[in-house]
Every structure is written in C-alpha cells, then in structure tokens.
Amino acid sequence: MTEPALKGLTETNALINFGDLPTHIDEMLQSGVALYRQDRAAADAMFRAALAADPSVLPTYFCLAKIHTYSGALDAALTAAEAGIAEAARQIGIGADFRAWSPADVANGADPNGATRFALYMIKALAFIHLRRNEPAEANAVLAQLARLGWLEAVGGHVVAELAGANG
Q1: Could you give the CA distance from residue 115 to residue 164 in angstroms, rounded to a whole number?
Q2: 136-150 tens-digit pLDDT
Q3: For residues 95 and 89, is the Cβ–Cβ distance under 8 A?
C-alpha cells in the first residue's frame, strides 16, 4: 500500500491503489470504499468480510480504522488500529506491543509497501484516534514512542503532534 493510497480513501470516483493484494480482497476493499459514500454500515460489513477472508491483508485494517474515525465510531477505530498494528508486528516478527519496540525493530520502515511502514502509519493513526477520543495523554505517549523509534516526521506524526499541542 503506497502513501497516496492512504490518502485516497476519501477521494471520489477513483480506484484506490492498495498495493499488490489478492484480486478478491482488492475488489472487496474497492467496494467498501464506494459503499462508504452511501452506506457506512455496508462499507463496514464489506471491510469486515475482507478481513475475515484474509486477516493478513494490512490495508483492510487501515480502511476500518479510517472509516470509523471519520464517522466518530472511535472505539471501533481504536480496535481496528490496534489489530492492524498487531498483525503488522506478526508479519515483521516482533512483539505486538509497539511500546516495547526499539529503533532496530523498525529499521526497514522505508519500504512504502512493507509491514513495518504500515505499522508506523497505524501507530500515527492510533495517536490521532486517542486525540479524537479526548485522550491527549495517551496520544502524546503514542507520539513519544513514534519519536523514540525515529519515525515521527517520516510518517507525518508531527501533524498529529501539532494537533495534540493545540488541544492539550
């Protein structure tokens, strides 16, 4: 999944480049994106069906976290983000608790389509979700870990940090 694909979830009338996915999963994600504009419950169901079909496909977690964040279903967004981080960690071969990660654990995060980069973006998303849940201390703790890992700027975490500072 490329960086533009992360932003593309809100664009209209365009297919999203989720990266190299199994065709049936990509079709489900594309359908979910299209459904989101008209029927958020159906979009959620489509993304959940994609997740059930193949829980190793990381963009599905992103889609769920994003639609739930946008719609204000922040508990569901938090659950999706945490599950996405845990699945990415499994694929990387490190522990699920990102708070225990070291910079060496995420040293290969430069690959825009890799599990490490996905995990780092989802950590940033997690900070934003905590901020939206009015949990600034938790958001700042997540951002501090992202900074300790050396990836705050590279994944745009500074934007969330600025929001946290404005709201904190």
Answers
A1: 26
A2: 999 999 999 999 999
A3: yes
* pTM beyond cutoff 0.90: no
Residue 51 structure tokens: 């997740």
Chain centre distance of CA 136: 19
Long-range CB contacts (within 8 A, 24+) of 39-42: 40/67, 40/71
Q: Which CATH class is domain 3-167?
A: mainly alpha
Alpha carbon distance 42, 94 (integer Å): 34
What mean pLDDT is reported for the chain?
Answer: 89
What secondary structure does DSSP assign to 21-64, as a single string? --HHHHHHHHHHHHHHTT-HHHHHHHHHHHHHH-TT-HHHHHHH
